[in-house]
Amino acid sequence: MLLSCKGRIRRADYWGYSILVLLVWSVSIFLLPTILSGPAAMLVLVPAWLTLGWVTMALGVKRLHDRDRPSWWLLLSLVPILNVWLLVEVGFLAGTPGANRYGPDPKTGG
């Protein structure tokens, strides 16, 4: 579910998973470096951060798919001002009702 870029995801699920990713990232930033140090920390943190980055991207792509937008719109996050619109598009606007080209409606399953 979290590693695939296929399909659609509801806003509530998007925010729930995003908060979970933020919590895991926060722990990895603040807690793990106090427990581990040097190369051992990097052996744990780098794969964790890469995984969290992938999960964040997959969630964004699924939300864009729910809005019937192509995944390349995620690149708008790199452009100032347009990244604010992307946040509105992904985080606050409802998905398209019914099935679209990316799959069935995640609210109704059809």
Write up what this structure looks like.
This protein has 110 residues and is mostly helical. Helix content is 56%, strand content 0%. It contains four helices and no strands. The protein has helices at residues 11-30, 32-35, 39-66, 82-91. Helix 1 runs antiparallel to helix 3. The radius of gyration is 16 Å and the shape is elongated.
Q: How would a textbook summarize the main sheet?
A: none
Topology as a string of helices (H) and strands (E): HHHH
> What fraction of the residues are assigned to beta strands by DSSP?
under 5%
End-to-end separation in angstroms reads 18 Å
Discrete helix count: 4
Question: Level of helix content?
Answer: 55-70%
**Uncertain spans, ≥5 residues at pLDDT below 50?**
none
**What's the overall geometry?**
elongated
**Taking all residues together, what is the mean pLDDT?**
92
Number of strands: 0
The structure class reads mainly alpha
Summed up, what is this model?
With about 110 residues, the protein is an all-alpha fold.
